Amino acid sequence: MSLSPVLARIDADITAATDRLLDLLRIPSISTDPAYKDACQTAADWLVADLQSIGFDASKRPTPGHPMVVAHYDGPGPHVVFYGHYDVQPVDPIDLWDRDPFDPAVEDTAKGKVIRGRGSSDDKGQLMTFIEACRAWQAEHGTLPCKITIFFEGEEESGSPSLIPFMKENAEELTGDVALICDTGMFGDSTPAIVTMLRGLLGEEITITGPSKDLHSGMYGGPAMNPIRVLADMISRLHDDQGRVTVPEFYEGVPELPDDIAQQWRDLGFDAGEFLGEVGLSTPAGEADRTALEMIWSRPTCEVNGIWGGYTGKGFKTVLPSKAHAKISFRLVGTQDPHKIRENLRAYLTDMLPPDCQIEFSGHGASPASQMQIDHPAFEQARHALSDEWPNAAAYVGCGGSIPIAGYFKTYLGMDAMLIGFGKDDDQIHSPNEKYDLSSFHKGTRSWARILDALSKDA
Fold first, then answer.
1. In which band, very low, low, confident or very high, does the pLDDT at 449 lie, cut at 50, 70 and 90?
2. Under 8 Å CB-to-CB from 25, ≥6 apart: which residues?
3. Cα separation of 93 and 351, whole Å?
4. SS (H, E, C) the chain
5. Would you say residue 459 has pLDDT above 60?
6. Cβ-contact 362, 228 below 8 angstroms
7. How far is residue 90's CA from residue 221's CA, in Å, rounded to a whole number?
8. Average pLDDT of the chain?
9. pTM for the whole thing?
10. Band (458; pLDDT cuts 50, 70, 90)
């Protein structure tokens, strides 16, 4: 089967493909908020119907949470499994959006046309690049170039509680020769990337309780212990003066970056000043003896993601609060054990606790880092196919994010996973005004068409 007419079809149908993506983006499939449970069902139904329309045997599968979408196409050659997720992050703070997050539109910007809306880059726009590539193959040849299983999740943005049980229960139909994941990004605007390193993720919520009720600070300020003060002191002690995390045994399992990989990363010409300048910053704030790219791709972190307590409304209230709260996350690398780190963190903070205070913990996910083995032939096939589509050759890179499914494919299904995405650093995923470059959507679709062609010919 010839690739050229497929690429031409993608070019000709880009407007219709964009309209389909906008339809999907209008569904507010926020997985973490129970108020949007029906919307998650609607998004799954939408995807099932769309996949059926291009020849897939597609169905919605129930879970204790939001449904999975599984679809099969019994083509020739190798069997690839494509993963994406249809759920999205909450939209708060809503007042920082320039338009309704679920009223997406194509906008002109200084950098070109973008698709604006929640989920446009993470991950609805990215998963639709693969579907549109399959649609173009079907339209031109009446078939697909290889055997394909599509696996869409509806809980990725809320910790994937149903994912592992579902994978175990349906292992046979979800196992192929290689897994493809589209939930990552490019290295710059012109260099496609295949991610070979992903950081793990550990989340912990902390509550400090001091007095039995909120107190008047004029009557009790001074003798009564303030839990916000206790919490602030704990947080300040999680890093030393050099930016290193102080949790005991935190760096066990953190590998040093091999010299050849370090050189490859230096050759990418990453400009930390430019990277930080785009978000109004200038100076890397992590470990003092590491480059910014190392901090993002190959070093672990500890970050405070939220902190609250007392009166936070308009005006002023001189309250001495009963409770103070914080959400803290860790990005992990190498063979760091998230469960051991959780235990050590809890013991570390409990030891800091002053008299008259109590501490409570609530865990939010614990997944280790993933390292991909690029000796699988599909990696080089995909790298060459990507290099044919973009101005610069595709690069093997790390990723600061955490995509546990990549490790799960190996652990539970015995498959190598290849992470190829077309997001950009300024897509504002998880933030107000999320966008996806229309050029990324277009060329990402063409890239998947090329990859499917390469995998089928080299089978």
1. very high
2. 102, 104, 115, 117, 118, 119, 120, 124, 125
3. 35
4. CCCHHHHHHHHHCHHHHHHHHHHHHCCCCECCCHHHHHHHHHHHHHHHHHHHHCCCEEEEECCCCCCEEEEEECCCCCEEEEEEECCECCCCCHHHCCCCCCCCEEEEECCEEEEECCCCCCCHHHHHHHHHHHHHHHHHHCCCCCEEEEEEECCHHHCCCCHHHHHHHCHHHHCCCEEEECCCECCCCCCCEEEEEECEEEEEEEEEECCCCCEEHHHHECCECCHHHHHHHHHHCCECCCCCECCCCCCCCCCCCCHHHHHHHHHCCCCHHHHHHCCCCCCCCCCCCCCHHHHHHCCCEEEEEEEEECCCCCCCCCEECCEEEEEEEEEECCCCCHHHHHHHHHHHHHHHCCCCCEEEEEEEEEECCEECCCCCHHHHHHHHHHHHHCCCCCEEEEECCCCHHHHHHHHHHCCCEEEEECECCCCCCCCCCCEEEHHHHHHHHHHHHHHHHHHHHCC
5. no
6. no
7. 37
8. 95
9. 0.80
10. low
Q: What is the rounded CA–CA span in Å between residue 79 and residue 174?
A: 10
As a whole number of angstroms, the distance between CA 187 and CA 193 comes to: 6
pLDDT in tens, 184-211: 999 988 999 999 888 999 999 999 999 9
Q: How far apart are CA 42 and CA 312, in angstroms?
A: 36
Q: Give the number of residues written for the chain.
A: 459
Token pair of 57 as six digits = 């045997």
Provide the CA 205 distance to its chain's centre, in angstroms: 20
